[in-house]
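Feature request, filed as a ticket because there's no other form

It would be nice if the structure record came with a short human-readable summary line next to the tokens. Right now we just get the raw output. Example of a typical job, pasted below so the devs can see what we mean:
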Amino acid sequence: QVQLLESGGGLVQAGDSLRLSCAASGRTFNYYIMGWFRQAPGKEREFVAAISRGGTVTYYADPVKGRFTISRDNAKNTVYLQMNFLQPEDTAIYYCAASSSGSTTPEIVQDGAQYGSWGQGTQVTVSS
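Raw output as currently delivered:
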């Protein structure tokens, strides 16, 4: 198991930027595919972005493509989510997650059930 701790959330205005961080401890960080998910009030959790173990392949949900960037620093055991041009519909709790899946197909990395470790989440609120 790996322990995950998110930070960087907050209250911003539409058009602003935020960078979320997720620090990992426990097992070797580069063993895991890392993902970001979010859950808005009254909605189901949804996939946001994921990154391969080496950081060379990234995946994004359509609503965030071109605005969000996922990256990782394996030396620092940290994954990031840079969020630009935030909109009110981005308001949600953002969760970091780790997957030990042997597959990195889009269908796998977007499936929350493939992630065995989750952080507690960080709130992002975007006002209009």
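Something like this underneath would help us a lot:
The chain is about 5% helix and 50% strand.
The longest helix spans residues 106-109.
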